[in-house]
Specification:
6 helices; mainly beta
Length: 447
């Protein structure tokens, strides 16, 4: 399993043991992905769902129609997101800091100039891309990335510099470390597609997905920032209810901003000076997929659990989604030195008063990434269905939705054995996928 997905847990032991365990694990993950995946997944027990249908939905009554898979290109480098340009070309982000134009015939152009410096380390890098609704006229777009600290050159760093060398430090020392910052920015793409111009930072503290809400605001998802508080990436064994602002500020959040970066006047936490004004919701872990449900206008997100407990949540203003107090997953077995298995996260529960329940969860993990509500006519059988890319699951997951509930699940493209990073609906109604191995693929019905 790739270390950019399963961010790992270190037990509280000496710094020497921590570092050596971590380095051994990272080498194992890189050299033997199959073995590493079995270590990270463990034999996680099946948690009890809060309501029927919250997990393990049955297959749909009618399976998906046959379809063709066309590989447009397989020469991208760890692609993360794509957008559709008005002339029919694709705009693709690569997590290593490059933004490229790809033609429908598979030609991949040189990187676009003017992208601000990106620090690529662990799960951080250049991520989402979103075109402004008026892009054809104003050339404006939005993107998310991890910026290096002042004075540090953009570079690709070994994972240990964000994981091992942070986990091994006490909180007071962590808070003095200048590691970089999550950002969402806007820019204009030059008419010849060769350069970003007028780059402006809109907000900091989130850098996963950026979505345009029906009211024209930007909703930006961001991962848990464990380095700023007393937590690890798969949680610790204590709860955070004594000071809820810790989680409001540092757990995975959704930010809500205007398209110029200003703060909407109806954001939910404006009356609380200890919570950043752009905060819309909190309590997520690593929300790498986001989409607006066209039936309701609400934001749905995928969220990576620790060992088990991957989720889909409906994100609403001011709501709490539990991390790291409660989770349907547990801490990673692979890094415990005390031999314990399935150690709970936070207060040990899967539910808690005041915390929103996920619409759906998976145990074991699928490592959900990009997501899409299909609205096109090319696949009429899929209309209204939700699609989620599975990294660890190596599949495209189709979910049938009724009244905000998942009633059926089908796994597609399992034969390709590709880690699916993003899924998008094109202007032509076809479905497009990015795989972590570098492929841009197109799905169309089989005639």
């Amino acid at each position: 399993m790739n270390t950019d997905r399963r961010r790992l847990k270190m037990p509280i032991v000496s710094a020497f043991i921590r570092v050596n365990l971590r380095l051994t694990a990272l080498v194992t993950a890189l050299v033997s992905p199959t073995l590493a995946q079995s270590q990270f997944t463990g034999n996680t027990p099946q948690p009890k769902p809060a309501f029927p249908g919250q997990t393990k939905a049955p297959p749909p009554a009618k399976a998906s129609p046959a379809f063709n898979v066309e590989t447009i290109t397989a020469r991208l480098n760890s692609p993360w997101s794509l957008a559709f340009l008005p002339d029919g070309n694709f705009l693709v982000t690569e997590s290593n800091g490059f933004l490229r134009v790809v033609r429908p015939d598979g030609v991949v152009y040189a990187p676009i100039a003017g992208v601000p410096g990106v620090k690529v380390v662990a799960a951080q890098g250049l991520h989402d891309i979103l075109l402004d609704p008026d892009f054809a006229r104003n050339r404006k777009l939005y993107f998310t990335y991890f910026a290096p600290p002042p004075g540090e050159e953009p570079a690709i760093w070994p994972n240990e510099f964000f994981y091992v060398k942070v986990w091994s430090k006490p909180l007071a020392e962590r808070r003095t470390m200048s590691l970089g910052m999550e950002r969402v920015a806007s820019a204009k793409l030059s008419a010849d597609y060769k350069r970003l111009e007028d780059v402006q930072t809109l907000a900091e503290g989130a850098e996963r997905r950026v979505v345009l809400a029906p009211d024209g605001k930007l909703l930006v998802t961001g991962a848990d920032r464990f380095r700023f508080y007393d937590s690890d990436l798969d949680g610790v064994e204590h709860d955070f209810t004594e000071n809820p602002d810790i989680r409001r500020n540092f757990s995975g959040r959704v930010l809500r901003i205007n398209r110029d970066g200003s703060i909407p006047k109806d954001n939910p936490w404006l009356g609380r000076p200890t919570v950043p004004p752009e905060t819309f919701a909190h309590g997520l872990r690593d929300p790498e997929g986001a989409a607006i449900n066209p039936a309701t206008g609400e934001l749905w997100v995928t969220d990576h659990g620790p060992q088990g407990g991957d989720e889909i949540n409906i994100v609403r203003a001011g709501k709490d989604y539990g991390w790291p107090d409660v989770s349907y997953g547990v801490q990673y077995d692979a890094y415990r030195t005390d031999g314990r298995k399935n150690v709970p996260v936070g207060n040990g529960g899967t539910s808690m008063k005041g915390v929103e329940e996920p619409v759906y969860f998976w145990v074991p993990d699928i490592a959900p990434s990009g997501m899409l509500f299909y609205t096109g006519d090319v696949f009429p059988e899929w209309k209204g269905n939700l699609f989620v890319g599975g990294l660890e699951g190596q599949c495209l997951v189709r979910l049938v939705i009724q009244s905000d509930r998942v009633v059926a699940e089908e796994r597609l493209l399992t034969d390709l054995k590709q880690r699916m990073r993003d899924v998008r609906q094109g202007p032509d109604g076809a479905m497009y996928l990015l795989s972590r191995t570098g492929a841009l693929m197109k799905l169309t019905p089989k005639k």
